[in-house]
Amino acid sequence: MNIFSWIKNNWLVIILGIVIIVLLGKGTSPLAGLRNQSMDSAGISLSYPTKGGMLREVAPVISDQRMVVQDTNMSMLVKDVAESIKGIESIATEMGGFMVDKSLTKPEGAASGHITLRVPTEKREISLDRIRLLGVRVVSENVYGDDVTDQFVDTATRIASLEKVKVQMEAILVQAAEVQDLMNVQMQINNIQEQIDSLKGQQKYLEQTAKLTRIAINLSTDELALPYAPDSAWRPTVVFKTAVRSMIGALRSVADVIIWTVVYLPIILVVLGMIWLGRFVYRRMVKV
Hints:
Keywords: Coiled coil, Membrane, Transmembrane, Transmembrane helix. By secondary structure, this protein is α+β, with helices and mostly antiparallel strands. Helices cover 59% and strands 16% of the residues. The chain contains 9 helices and 5 strands; from the N terminus they run αααβαββαβααβαα. Strands 2-3-5-1-4 form a 5-stranded mixed β-sheet. About 12% of the residues have low confidence.
């Protein structure tokens, strides 16, 4: 059996091989997309990281004197994402806080959104109670605390130390007689003042962050679109939605393959034409 006979008997395999090579060369594999989408649909397991990574033991100071930065992350199922975001923003304003950022998307017909707000720490529970009433169900809620008391006290100590050094440098500046000495001392004073201003900015940031708690809320009309770890209970509706999404992903991948094949069909036809021409020339040469 010569090579032309083998090509004639396996022409379909050759065409599929060319299509796969072209797709891999472009770095866009529909099969890979199908795998990724199936994994995303079947295994939604997202979680929020803890602040600072590892838990650390705090110094034994009276609780009223502690400065704790509190962050709340919430996932909520709602009927109307846009209206819920407006309601949450209104709650933040009424509580004396403000909206930090917000977004709204509509993937595959299921609206999803995110909003981050800051409200006074003492009004956090009231704000959360009112926010929960805007949704159908709270899917997950996590509160993280970061004790910054030690950092705040250390910053204050460094500021006091630098201010003492600055006073001493100013006394030296008064006694300096040479121009070069005056310039050097003034540069040192300016450098110390910059450090003091920077530390005061950090101190103010810590103080304001502790006074205004951060609340981040993910909203969606589809529970599967929310970033949470589902429980082990069997829920037929969730399984059905996952199966439907997987089927849609598979159909899209098949459609992608068909589109790629149609686009590269002229190249495939040219290759087949060259094979047929080579076979025709070979036969003529054999007859001669």
